[in-house]
Amino acid sequence: MKPFIPSVTRNVLASWMAHALTIVIGFFLMPYVVSVMGDQSYGTWLFINSMASYAGILYFGFGDTISRYVAKYHAEGNDLRINQIVSLIFAIYLVMGGITLLVAISLSLLAPWTSHWVGDELFEIQLTIIILGLNAATGMVGSVFGGVLMGVRRFDLERGVIVGSDLLRLTLIAVFLHQRWGLVTIASIYWFITLAENVACAYLAYRSLPKLRIARKYLDRHVLKECSSFSAMAFLNAIAYQLTNATDSVVIGIMMGTDKIVPYYIALRLTQFLKQPIDKISQICMPTAGALSAVTERHRLQRFLVKAVGTVMLLVGGVFIGAWFFGGDVIRNWMGSGYTASHHILVILLAAQLVALPCSVLRSFLFGMGDVRFPAILYLVEALCNLTLSIILCSFWGLTGVAWGTFVPVLCIELGVLVPVALGRMGLQPYRFFTQAIVPQLLPLAALFGYCVWVSAQEWSHQGWPMLIGVTACGGLVLGATWLLVDQLRSLRLRTLESQATAA
């Protein structure tokens, strides 16, 4: 019987539904956690968690390798190769997970020499570091099964696990979080959730691939050689990702103090809330592009690329415009009036995503086609520039300087280098890409901009959540209706041109 593979639309909708719940939970959860723990304690949690996230480097790029090769061999019906790939990476992650835990224990022993922590506070910090190391190790080993689900394009199942874990996290934090030993409590909750997620993904992976087996007999050095060529570059990509995502909090914590992380993190967290459902399109594109390239459907691949980039451009452009006008109102209603600097930071970070998210689709297509060296090296260069600029600009402009340190490398490297090279490697002319992917989104975005200008001038536009939600919903209708109108006009024009060509 032919395996069930959900459509791209279904996978995207499942991702968005899961993320909508994540946003709702995050909006309720973060103000509660900050109010219970305080800026100083919560900033310390963010700092330690950012440092712990560097354990992601030990994935060595094999996360993308699972998704890419499972998609490839699943399309070819090669169950043996799938088992060899999964067994090999599972074994590697067992070793890396053990190393991660040992590093965490070592760092906990070094904690007295890294800050002013003493007494009970020091013991709590040390225990938190160890638990986060255990959490990273657990997530590393279990991520194999999430990679299998993404490889067979069962994003709907993977997102369902995320929904369940988000609800469980909300419940556990609301019930058990308290000010004393708050860091240990929240770290323990995160580890328990990671364990539950991995068990669920393992069960669903075996259900989706009944012939999936993980065993020592499937370990093959030839498979390691095959995977290494891809994972080596994906590893550079993983380093770049960790540098980019953990740099800001670490730089601020070291140069300005952990309590200063919170105003920046508010803007960063909002950016993550807004970008993640859009970013899911890029994640879904990689295995789909891999499957299309495996059957050498070049025309379909290009058409899929144009559609994906256009959709991402429309969505991130709408988010940026909305945040420009109403982001400050959202932050005040969400976290209170003490974080006015967060709006300015939010606009800069979203401006970076206005470039980065459409370009991430190009990167995902290259990865799916097996072309990983160029985008990985480029992403690493961008991350190093981000780190360097953030340190330099933080000295002059504080939190805002860190945000600009993120924006400048994205603008220069993604647009100036990634886009022209990626289009050339996919055989897509820049003019066609621009006219088919970008131009159709400009009129809907202009309509949304005009709507926001009009609404922001009204006195009733800034009064509480009901009004902000209503303004957002109407803005979405303006954007969507204008896009549908443009799409219908384009379709009518194409049909007219086809009729004229047929008549001629």
Would you kindly provide a written description of the structure presented here, covering whatever features stand out?
- This protein has 504 residues and is an all-alpha fold.
- It has a domain of 161 residues.
- Helix content is 85%, strand content 0%.
- The mean pLDDT is 85.
* Radius of gyration over C-alpha positions, nearest whole angstrom: 23 Å
- What is the average per-residue confidence, as pLDDT, rounded to a whole number? 85
Main sheet, how many strands, which sense, barrel?
Answer: none
Multimerization state: single chain
Span between N and C termini? Answer: 47 Å
In sequence order, what are the helices and strands, one letter per element?
Answer: HHHHHHHHHHHHHH
Spans of at least 5 consecutive residues whose pLDDT stays below 50 are none
Instruction: Give the helix level as a range of percent.
Output: over 70%
Q: What portion of the residues fall into strands of 2 or more residues?
A: under 5%
Strand runs, count: 0
DSSP summary: helix tally: 14
Shape: globular
Secondary-structure-based class equals mainly alpha
Summarize this structure briefly.
The protein is mainly alpha-helical and 504 residues long. It has helices spanning 8-52, 62-76, 79-110, 119-151, 155-176, 182-208, 221-256, 261-294, 298-335, 341-368, 373-397, 399-425, 430-456, 464-503. Helix 2 packs antiparallel against helix 7 (221-256), helix 7 runs parallel beside helix 11 (373-397) and helix 8 (261-294) runs parallel beside helix 10 (341-368).
